[in-house]
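Quick question: what would this complex look like in 3D?
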Amino acid sequence: MNVAKLPPAFEISRQPFQVRQQTIDRISLAMSVYILLVLYPAYELIRWMWADSSPSLSSVGIALLIAILFGLFARNTISRYMVNIR
Amino acid sequence: MLQFAQSFLAGYYLQIKFIHLVFAGMWFWSTSVAYTYYLVPLFRDWLKNPEDPDRIRLRNWAMERFDEGAILEHVAFPILLITGPMLMIAGGWTLVSSWLAMKLVLVVLVFIPVEVMDYYLAHFSLNKAKIRATGTPEAYEKAIRLHWWFLVVSTPIVIVVITLIFYLAIVKPF
């Protein structure tokens, strides 16, 4: 590789990229809430409109379980990628 | 109109399915090697050594190349949005099928917003090479960091939801 052709390093880029664990936690929580309050109701709405099907307690439980597990997975994945967590 | 479209497209169902699958693969996997083995290691290396100019230059290079590499993914996505409904019409599928209802929700409420943001970051006003050409280091750095945030946050979404979409489309479990 011709190193001279690499883009330059600007002075401003030297500032450390710091991420708070609290920020990651909030993002992960927002994803869980999005599954539970947006994706799942949208799915049930379509099922109700097209198949005349109403949500059951077990499907709500499964949606809750998926939301929690996904939130934990997202938290773990994002934390692994962001090295400099405070 | 819908009946005419269905009778016309039904004869080409498998051909449309072939195109849909090829572009689904292109959409999902075209950036995976670049992301996993170039972008992520170079970014993590820079995160550990933020003051090293060589690492910053390599990071910038990887991100600018990634912007270009995302073209394949971003050509594939609109083709999926066209061939998906065509398959639905040709195959006579309706939203009575739960797998299709779930797939539709995931595409419309997860992937269309994610891809809109991705187009914006990679090709439009936040394209890094274009920003560098304007000579504004602050905007360049801000765009790089925002793009990194976006990629990291969307990683768990991509891993889980795309795999789920493939499963729903192929297995049609319910």
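Answer marked as accepted. Chain A has a mean pLDDT of 92.
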